[in-house]
Amino acid sequence: MSTETESLGYFLPYALALPESSGKDESRSQLSSRVYLPAFSIAAVATVLVAIGWASRWGGSNFAASMTGLRVVLVGPVTIAILAAFLVVERLHPAQRRPIFARGYRQDLLYTILNATIVAPLVVALSLSFALVARRTLPWIVLPRFGFLPRSAVIVLIFVAMDGCNWLAHLMNHRVRMFWRFHELHHSQEDMSVLTVFRTHPLIHVSYLMTLVPGIVLIANGAVPTTLLVAYAGFVAFEHSNTNLGFGPLGRIFVSPNYHRIHHRLEGRQDVNLGFALTIWDQLFHRAVFPTKETIRADTGLPGRPLRVEQEAEVPRHLSVLVAQLIGPFRPLDRDTDITGSPATPSR
Ligand SMILES: [Zn+2]
Ligand SMILES: [Zn+2]
Rounded to whole angstroms, how far apart are CA atoms 288 and 332? Predict the structure, then answer.
């Protein structure tokens, strides 16, 4: 009898579960075995934001002018010259020696083209719409002009606050699975270069919209000059380069290539060194790991390659890998993979 009760006991949860599971639940679980549903909410937020901006004519902002501004930051002549110089520097003093046309470089070139063409208008649309919604729903966040502060001080303030917001959004990308699914593409690069800065999912920009808040709050004090945005973008690109460079004592304050490579390393925690330009945020929150001889040449990428990468097959198939990487966030969840893409069981 007791054996029978025990064996019934094993089946009880299943027996109880059966009548409760409605057709709706079943179809939902069938759906979630085919796709990762939460990823669609990011796509939905992007769609709603763009629709609001479109319907409101971008709140009176000049879409074309903003687009030109972003293009200047992304692929303007100064940016291209900076990127080209960095590509030469990383050939001269590399952290890891690689062929000049390594697979990862070619794949990231595709992302560079994708950013300059399709992603740039999306980022402009998202940014203008977000600023519009923020100004309309929370008009009090726009502060009046500070007569007592020189403009240069305001710009420094905006940049430091923007960098802090980038750090926070980046942390969220590592801690919230829904966002990690979009961010893991950036971490999947095994041949890092300056162009890896462009290896991002187009929808990841939704998570970085909060970075606009300091600029919106202080807009009465003047907009941030495009030149400085180019410098910031160039700086963030450079920290992805394959250059063996740690900035000496300045590497304690500014993010160097050797510092950021630790964030991309294959082995060990990747939710450290989240800073974009400044290391102070990582230091404040005990997430700073400074480079050593061992970390400089560390391999990068994701353990177990949860996302298709151009390095895995005999033939790289760049375009089909690109498509697989872009639909990657929507693929069903692999239960054996933890939030940072590492296999769930091994020590980290
Ligand atoms: Zn990251
Ligand atoms: Zn990175």
Answer: 33
